[in-house]
Amino acid sequence: MAFDSHQKREFKQVGTRPPRPDGIDKVTGRALYGADVSAPGMLTARILRSPHPHAKIVAIDTSEAAALPGVKGIVTGADFALPDDEFFADIAVNVMARDKALYDGHAVAAVAAISPAVAAEALKRIKVTYEVLPHVTDVDAAMRADAPVVQPGRAVETVPAGMGANVTHFCEFGHGDVADGFAKADLVVERSFRTAATHQGYIEPHACLASMTADGKADLWCCTQGQFNVRTICATLLGIEASQLRVSASEIGGGFGGKTTVFIEPVALALSRKTGKPVKLVMTRDEVFKATGPTVSTSIDVKIGMTKDGRITAGEAVLRYSGGAYPCGTVDMGAQAAFAAYDLAAVRTTGWNALTNRPKEAAYRAPGAPQAIYAVESVVDELCLALKLDPLDVRIRNAARKGTKSSYGPTFDDIGLLATLEAAKAHPHYTAPLKPGQARGLSCGFWFNFGGNTCVSLNVNTDGTVGVTEGNPDIGGSRASISLMAAEELGIEYDKVRTIIADTSSLGYNDVTDGSRVTFSVGLATIKAARDAIGKMCGRAAKIWGIDEDAVEWRDGAAHPAGPNAGQFPPMTLAEIAAVSFQTGGPIAGHHEVNVDGAGVSFGVHLVDLEVDSETGATKVLRYTVFQDAGRAVHPDYVEGQMQGGAVQGIGWALNEEYIYGRDGRLQNAGFLDYRVPVASDLPPIDTVILEIPNPGHPYGVRGVGETPIVPPLAAISNAVSRAIGVRMQELPMSPPRILKTIRAARA
Amino acid sequence: MRYEKPQTVAEAARLLTAEKGLTRILAGGTDVLVQLKAGMVEPELVVDIKALPGLRSIVSEAGGFRIGAAVSGAQLGEDAEVRALWPGVVEATNLIGSTQVQGRATMAGNLCNASPAADSVPALVAAGAVARIAGPGAARDVPVEAIPVGPGKTALKRGEFITSIFLPARPARSGDAYLRFIPRTEMDIAVASAAVSLTLDEGGTITAARVALGAVAPTVRLVEAAAAAIVGTKLEDAAVAKLAAACSAACSPIDDKRGTIEFRTEVAGVLAKRAARIAYTRAGGQA
Amino acid sequence: MSISVSTTVNGDAVDFICNPEESLLDALRGRLGLTGSKEGCGTGDCGACSVTLNGRLVCSCLVLAVEAEGAEIGTVEGLASADRLHPLQQAFLDHAALQCGVCTPGILVAAKALLEKNPDPSDEDVRYWLAGNLCRCTGYDKIVRAVQSAAAQMRSA
Ligand SMILES: Cc1cc2nc3c(=O)[nH]c(=O)nc-3n(C[C@H](O)[C@H](O)[C@H](O)COP(=O)(O)OP(=O)(O)OC[C@H]3O[C@@H](n4cnc5c(N)ncnc54)[C@H](O)[C@@H]3O)c2cc1C
Ligand code: FES
Ligand code: FES
Q: What is the DSSP letter of A475?
């Protein structure tokens, strides 16, 4: 659906900042999240997990646990269907291990009991016989031919022969003659980087309440970014029909991509089926870290050539990602995104994925992109320093723009990179003086943004109010944005619209809340559904006035005769039409079902000032500004919120967050005390500058905004730290011991 | 697990002695509850000491202060007099955890949990604090550095517990300070830490000093060589460098998820140097 | 072994039965149905379970339920009156200081305790006071602004 050029109207609702519909529930503690509901007679479930990073499961003896009074049911891998399709099979095996435990924390059995205490006691009585196998947790080690084999035979066809058995994936993107490009450069810099796996770190652990009867009918309440996807996966794993499983999404306490798949839901359903009782299953924080999806861990080589005056002549990157113990295609997105900000004559990226004994990767905000762009933006910064060029000027000079053939193939339409870079250049932050010991860093960021399957119903009530029913869990205020777009299109007040999120039995399929798709796709479907309803309301007015339907038009919330020839009738408002709808043909509703494309890519630029304590390696972030193209900021508060939240997650990634594995292959820091997400006192205010370069693919010009902001902080911070200490940092996170070591090594 | 909340010290000692299985004292519970949750300990009996007489009060005694074993960090931080006399001890205690943890955590619990990284302990050791121990026998006083004997282990005998910690009086021109290194600004466990307590003469020369390090050995280290490096000086750069070197030399840390041997050894010296300067200024010295 | 506990929650006398191992958070959520306090970690690291216990801010996951005997507990459910939100709650809505909202109950309880102690905090005071309340969505910027705006409003009230 194209951007409406006639929509160059003044927006009345879009762009305002009204309170969110779920606000009062959330500030009073009334909102119900995953763990907040109970059912009469329900059981509590707990999961037993492997303490070994890699082990053959020789036997599981549940008899002693089953004999414990109060234990009502136990399931193991044998209780789940193993689907033929590899995508579902991997999820099934991840949810409950079969013959092998593939990482520390892999589920091996689960118990449902009358109380949490009995369930916990039962876990201790399950005897699992393991045969411990050699393990590998490092991506570079896993690629080698002599590495312990995590899963054999999982390489896709594109992987060349002769690679190590853990290599599952290969991809390649680019255009032009790279060798020729490097030959034209005045300076070529080649560097290797490593980034640790990080976790989404949502504050709400996974939680669900399942109820399934012997005839295969089931209800599931859970915190998820996509109830329809949960339904598809659970129905497949349990061998039931989608129509029989109703999934309701609770309020969700953060997801960031990590709640786009399932971990515990099929287990709770299987236990409910087995026990004939509702089963509640809530993860502990330790389980969240050990067994839900972190990001890939990576090892990346980047080579870039530049002329003295700052023109990039060629770029090349080799990305080695590991998405844990299962094949993972995230490297594709990294390889595509790496050079997306640049207009290049010659560019080539290749990507590999290797299996390791780590948990199965799950999406995390712009999956795959932050790591690749961190490596590229670090090398660009090093070139700028070496050639004494202004880093923003160099990026402006080489920026991708409308008509650029992107590094991953498509040619860009209207994009906001140049405008974003220029806004950064003009901002007082860029020229503010720095004190001795302080440094400034910057980086570009990029994300594709998704569209996808979307379905919206819009009901016009007889009192002149409107209900919007959509199918995407609201992770950061999207109900407010959807209501704004409905109100805008219909020409009524925001207060007259209420948007709710439907369960899987009440609406058609919707893709998960991911890819920054909701405000864009659901917004588009809502506008279309509103137009559908408007068409029907115009029809009713036409009927009342006794004129042709085509002779009625909708303006300012009311039907009007289209012109002097149509007749002289006073306009009928939505409320007036709705009030008489029962007499004019019955209830009025609009619908729209679509597989949306036209998601506009989004670029951002981050600026950071910081200082490093050269005696301890501690970094203090002093000032931070985010510039980003939002296409159209429907509810600016929540656009800013995405920019700020994403930036801070990126700051955490850059400085302190990491999965730390011991030599024994076990996760050492499965808790918030040692998995160090930023706390309030670590941070300065996060300033935001929203740019609005309309997306041609959306009627109001909306672009997704949620993911791009996590991309630039990694390199922005690394570039600033490198400038502050005078040495290039090449590994994330830049924890104080790593920075101090780098300083010491440079001095020695 | 049984929970008891005795009303007298004698009753508490009796309960603890009578129990054959594992027991735990419950003060603020900020270690105990975490350990229970993780299944690290499964005590038969938990004895809550918060109702025992005097355990939640701070009283002046002989020019110093007797701090009840159930006094929380927040309560201690609100006491202006203790803060004035022993600012380093109070700031060390107030660094423990978050505001929420401060609402509960005690110095005695910090000491008896016997973590090498406990924040209040180096400051208490530098201050020469003394723990009063109750138990089946007569009460006895023990210097705090004698309580922890290794990670998670104390010198307390069966049925014994701490009822108060005594912070002594101190001469004029004295000051103390505590610094720790953590990767974030809050909510981390010390990677290395240092406490310095010192006294000056009228001319600003250091006449006495105690320097203690945390998180660089199985228990808190009282580093006499570091104190010797600054006694008799006005904390000139050369003295400070000697202090830092003595501190680094006294470290025997481990490599773990929080830091490396190399990092801890180096940073302990840096922190001691900085803490000494603060203590010196607090004592009225012109740095 | 079950223990019977009599306590006061948000000014109301209540009784519940619990096991000695149970945390106050478990009792509030499971025994009393007050699910406004959230469990983000169960080990004192996230602050989502923040409540006041006899006026002191604490993590309810680090308090035994039995310790509530005779105590006064304040939770997020006690912040608003029947017809009016607490100024902090209103400020959080006005400043969009929540995204997913799961950290919000704990942060509101903690911020209220701050403003009772210090009605005019600096931004740094707010940030350090709230360091034990993790928020993964907002980057804290709008939270600090909302607390300051509520503080200003409460000072002028
Ligand atoms: C989120 C979080 C952050 C933390 N951050 C820090 C930090 O920054 N620095 C730090 O040092 N610690 C930290 N801790 C650990 C803990 O808060 C401190 O060790 C605290 O001082 C313990 O005091 P408590 O009163 O809560 O002890 P409790 O948990 O009640 O007891 C701790 C141990 O000491 C024993 N004990 C308690 N009182 C006595 C007594 N009077 N006599 C004999 N034995 C006794 C108990 O049996 C138990 O073994 C943190 C904990 C959490 C949960
Ligand atoms: S649940 Fe209590 S602090 Fe996280
Ligand atoms: S709003 Fe989601 S954690 Fe704070």
A: S
